[in-house]
Amino acid sequence: MRHGGRRTAYAVAGLMLALLSAGCAGTGGPDGQQPAGVGERVTETPTSTGTPASGKSTAPDSKRLATLRARAGIAPCAQLTVGPGGSVHQAPPAPPGGKPLPDVTLVCLGSGRSVRLSDLKGAPTVLNVWAQWCGPCRAEAPHFQKLYAAAGDSLRVVGVDFADPRPELALAFARDLGLRYPQLADPDKRLLAPFGLLAGIPATVFVDADGKVVHVAHRPYDSERELRQDVRTYLGVKL
């Protein structure tokens, strides 16, 4: 009986270990309901901005979010309706092919303004999908800020806070890293299927001036140089 009890204990321990391993590789975010991708590209351990201790929270009111957004210094989403310089920009021809951006409306992170993705035309666009609880997203974010600073009127750079129930932490993430480019929010995972985000985040979507998706990079960028190379390859824009 003693050996039988010991075997039972080992079996239970093995089952618990298997369940824990499966949870790390699943699609649950910090609250157990949001997709976090798979493998090592996404982490659910707290970043410097933290994650919900209980997994549930009450979102701060709109005035509080507006204050946090202002402190972060994020560019207004209004500039996304036309080219980054305030007018429609004629970019060099991008590689042929691609599907139109999905007809999805997302809220501007920290404000009540909405942006329809299918309206992002007139300039080539780099759309970076991230979350404040994603370690690799934090590591690559400065490369996108440098790209935004160098782009001027030739390129639009946009971030999307994905599957994140804590907009206040997302705004703190942007403030801590000095991210000034426009940011949208997709807490309801509306981009999950269109951009194939089951593969994980971060993901970067390259969109030509006609609003067509020409490439989706399902990986983090290790350097600004690597990011610029893909901008040139997929969008025909040399910076």
From TrEMBL:
Positions in coiled-coil regions: none
Assigned keywords, A-Z: Cytochrome c-type biogenesis, Disulfide bond, Isomerase, Redox-active center, Signal, Signal-anchor, Transmembrane
Pfam families: AhpC-TSA
Domain Thioredoxin residue range list: 95-236
GO biological process: cytochrome complex assembly
Compositional bias segments (type: Polar residues): 44-60
Keyword Isomerase on entry: yes
Protein name, entry field: Thiol-disulfide isomerase/thioredoxin
